[in-house]
Amino acid sequence: MQRIYSGNIATGAHEIAVSVTGKLANGKDYTQTEHFPFTKEIKPKLIGVTLAGPDAPQPGIHLGDW
User: Fold this and answer.
1) Which residues contact 38 (CB under 8 A, 6 or more apart)?
2) How far apart (Å, rounded) are the C-alpha atoms in residues 33 and 17?
3) Coil, helix or strand for 29?
4) CA distance 53 to 30
5) Model-level pTM?
6) Pair 20, 63: CB distance under 8 Å
7) Is the pLDDT score of 1 beyond 80?
8) What's residue 65's pLDDT?
9) What's residue 6's pLDDT?
10) I need a surface site. Which of 13, 18, 45, 60 has the fewest CB within 10 A?
11) Tens digit of pLDDT for each residue in 20-60?
């Protein structure tokens, strides 16, 4: 777990973009970017990002509430 941002954002609709860049086992470059909408309410909000390479059982970038 790594805290990326700790601060205050306005309530309402927002979008977060998550980009991953790396190398595959065969040496080829790997890049993926996903955009996720989320809504910030008055109470604190925690968002979890799960990263998995293209060979994982469920590949990609996934966003979830914590």
Assistant:
1) 13, 14, 15, 16, 45, 47, 63
2) 7
3) strand
4) 9
5) 0.76
6) no
7) no
8) 83
9) 87
10) 13
11) 898 888 999 989 999 999 999 999 888 999 988 777 888 78
Instruction: Give every CB contact of residue 62 below 8 A, 6+ residues apart in sequence.
Output: 49, 50, 52
Residue of 62, 57, 64 whose CA lies nearest to 20:
62
The structure tokens listed for 18 are 């998550």
**Which residue(s) pair with 31 in the sheet?**
21
The tokens for 51 are 């990263």
> Coil, strand or helix: which one is 7?
coil
